[in-house]
Amino acid sequence: MSGTGHALALRGLTKRYGSFTAVDSVSLKVERGEFLTLLGPSGSGKTTILMCIAGFVAPTEGAVLLDGADITPLPPERRDFGMVFQGYALFPHMTVAENVAFPLRVRKLGAAEREAKVKAALDLVQLGRFADRLPRQLSGGQQQRVALARALVFDPALLLLDEPLSALDKKLRAELQEELKALHRRVGRTFVNVTHDQEEALSLSDRVAILNHGKLVQEGPPAHLYEHPRTRFVADFLGKSNFLHGTVQESVPEGFVIGAGTTRIVQSVAENRRPAHGSPVLLSLRPEKIALLNEDDAADNVVTGRIAAWSYLGAGYTLVVETPDLGALRVALPTWQAPIAPGEGLPVRLGWSSTASVPVVEDVA
Ligand code: ATP
User: Which domains does the chain have, with CATH numbers?
Assistant: First the structure.
């Protein structure tokens, strides 16, 4: 089980059901050996795209390409992709080893070769010791690892995962996420994963493609998407954000200034991206980019307000600070930076740098 995987491309992929467009002209490349996640809210078309890649759903328009070859007309069995689905049922009457051997039997491999490949696949998911158990004698996480071994055992060109971890509890899911990531590194294959869980998408993937209403709205490496969302939808879907509305008042060397009531906000942007004077602007400001300032601390942007609500999260606090001009601002503080007793009504000074926020646009869905 070595190699560099295969490259996948979607070209103008569209799926309509009657007059309803479930997938709307999606073009996307997945590089060899890459872990790509399709992320979006329920009904955004993720599963439909995965089913088009697998060959179970025929696109209305567009094409699926594997290493540049058009595979759109091929039936699923000729594509030979590995698949793991949510709550993927193992054959209950077969042992772990028999389950994993199943795709090899279908492909008519000899007993010796089968045995060697099953052993390698089970070692890969660290379940070698459980080969003779029945599925019901395993935990949910172990069963899901067996499903992964079964999907990988025949060395598929591509591994397709549809919410493979969503049936598991939170702690187990976090553990399996790490294992899945390590597994991807070990096998070096191309993985396409579907989830609506933004944390899972950020932590697992080399690249994330965000979908809304069947359209690809933005794609890129997790950190880039999180730091540079282009739209309000992306900023909002990938974690929490504050959205600041204002009007461009002046140009300054680092960017521009917007006014919101009597508050001035300095925003850095590249010279060629400056909006015109008087135009409305929407900024996305992540809660963790806002600092709590002491009386004489300086920052590019400073606002005052009062704590309206707060919650303790172990690793830190979330404060909701009510400000006169910007409304309620959500602030995430590490414990060491938070006031000892962040009581409601406490007056606070908040500050952030002109590079902390990013201009975004409202989505037109
Ligand atoms: P979820 O996260 O809830 O699984 P999803 O992003 O995977 O959602 P899809 O299952 O791809 O979404 O569905 C996209 C849209 O297409 C949905 O509005 C769904 O109702 C619709 N759809 C899917 N299959 C069919 C079908 N066979 N006939 C009609 N509409 C369909």
Answer: 8-228 (3.40.50.300), 237-360 (2.40.50.140)
